[in-house]
Amino acid sequence: MITKLLIANRGEIACRIIRTARDMDIATVAVYSDADAKALHVRQADEAVHIGPSPAAESYLVGEKIIAAAKQTGADAIHPGYGFLSENADFAQAVKDAGLIWVGAPPSAIRAMGLKDAAKKLMREAGVPVTPGYDGEDQSPERLKQEANTIGYPVLIKAVAGGGGKGMRKVDGEGDFLSALESCRREAKASFGNDDVILEKWITSPRHIEVQVFGDTHGNVVHLFERDCSLQRRHQKVIEEAPAPGMDEATREEICAAAVRAAKAVDYEGAGTIEFIADASEGLRADRIFFMEMNTRLQVEHPVTEEITGVDLVEWQVRVASGEPIPLKQDELTIDGHAIEARLYAEDPAKGFLPSTGQLEHLDLGSEGRVETGVEESDAISPHYDPMIAKLIAWGEDRDEAIDLLLDMTEGAQIWPVKTNAAFLANCLADEDFGDADLDTGFIERKGDALLGDAEPTGAIRAAAAELVLLAADIPHDALAGFRLNASPRLSVALDQAGNTEVVTPHDALPFEPLHGFTSSERVVVFADGLAHEFTLSSRGGGAAVAGDGAILAPMPGKVIAVDVAEGDAVTAGQRLMVLEAMKMEHALTAPFDGTVAELNASEGGQVQVEAVLAVVEPTSEE
Fold this sequence. Notes:
Blueprint: E1 4-7, H1 11-23, E2 27-33, H2 40-44, E3 47-52, H3 63-73, E4 77-79, H4 89-97, E5 101-102, H5 107-114, H6 116-125, E6 133-134, H7 141-151, E7 155-163, E8 166-171, H8 177-192, E9 197-201, E10 206-215, E11 221-233, E12 236-242, H9 249-265, E13 270-279, E14 289-295, H10 302-309, H11 313-321, E15 338-345, E16 347-348, E17 354-355, E18 358-359, E19 362-364, E20 370-373, E21 380-381, E22 388-396, H12 399-411, E23 414-416, H13 422-430, H14 432-435, H15 443-447, H16 459-472, E24 493-497, E25 500-504, E26 516-519, E27 523-528, E28 531-536, E29 546-547, E30 551-553, E31 558-563, E32 570-571, E33 576-582, E34 585-590, E35 595-600, E36 607-608, E37 613-619
Parallel strand pairs: 1-2, 1-4, 2-3, 4-5
Antiparallel strand pairs: 6-9, 7-8, 7-9, 10-11, 10-13, 11-12, 12-15, 13-14, 15-22, 16-17, 18-21, 19-23, 20-22, 24-25, 26-27, 27-28, 29-30, 30-37, 31-33, 31-36, 32-35, 33-34, 35-37
């Protein structure tokens, strides 16, 4: 058995592997770049080794540094996680050549499945159904265009070495083919150093179905059923679930058996995924499900398989890499319930899903379901790596129960000031078509802006913000207040958002239970439905709190604890007039300009309401 495991990765997957290793009494070694010096995976590992600057190309992608770190710490095995070097056959071979255990697929299998054209030919020979198309050696534009015309439009151009949606173009007609081919090849060359392509028939109602397989060194291969990863944005998976909705037992048996044949064809060892594209125009049928590619590593979405099978796939990886047989036989594996995973990213859906980097000053993902994360509150989202905050996984007795739980988890996510896609995920889960399992890979694109939701705070959210301020100030919101005769019988709070100020009064009918947030001396933040709504407590700035020509207004409810002037006193701009205690903090109110205190309505020890006129300063006349 492995005794010390180096994880050649970072973030949530490194933390995930560390957890299983700890349960197995295996010591762990983390590696880290400059940007990750204080990262969670570094804090959780037994040891950590610095491997270079922040860019992955100078740290996490330098195999020699990782192997050296393993030698330095006495690790006897390396787990690559996913991404980075996990499907790099040369790195896998280098690990083995260094006398270390490689917790991953055999280099030969990685190479066999690494190029889509060669993989399709191999699968065809193994009796695995493949998508109609062209994967020949003649890569001339003329031949490719001819084959596309024969296949029939729309067709899909795919880089043979592609992945993650790169080097992929859909072509709707003959006139667009050559320009799309040129663009695809240019991107493929830049991303993978290989501009060869294959052509596939475009499936009009595509479902992305994948099967988890597992092999060992004793010739055993099993499947752990299928996952549906159809909810995608720009070919990147967003929500995954297991089992696939609408999959009948006969179709499941055929597709899973095909996946096992695919794994056996390359003498597969460890965890792998066979990805299929299904034409779901008439439901899921075995004769309309075609091989796309094999991922020779652990997948991001592996937790949903773990949830329905009760298996720890990382533990299986470690045991199989140590030479043990697969812990369970095929007939001992069953499906229990339904699981769904959502990828929670630090990105701003309102700005085209651009990454949102920075410190996670507030982070609370609740206590429901399963959360896989590589960050904690006060950690930072780095611009150097994938901006994933966490994977949120829900299990239920059936699909509806799993959806409901995951909806609660996404709507309840509390993250600030980094922007997230939590509300977007919640809107996907709440969509009627998603609930009815009316899915395909174009779901998100088809729904468009409807999934973004409305970020404008409702009246209830504004009222909740006002309530939070009052609670933080230890002032009951039904207290009488103010010096003005027309003061409201209930306290209010002046909230500013995007330069617009509104005086808000809480009300008894407000459903506060689903609304959460926090306050500081400057702001209040309310979390609702996966969004963070920030309000500034005073828009007047500098503590002056002036209105009109020199009126000094209370920026929030509070207690006057000091008065420094009297009526008739001459004051200068910025001079302190009084101090207001609110939200357990002191706020100095100052003169807006040189002048005379013409009116003073505050006295030490007095309680005041928001917007109460505490004093009036008349400017010094210019003669």
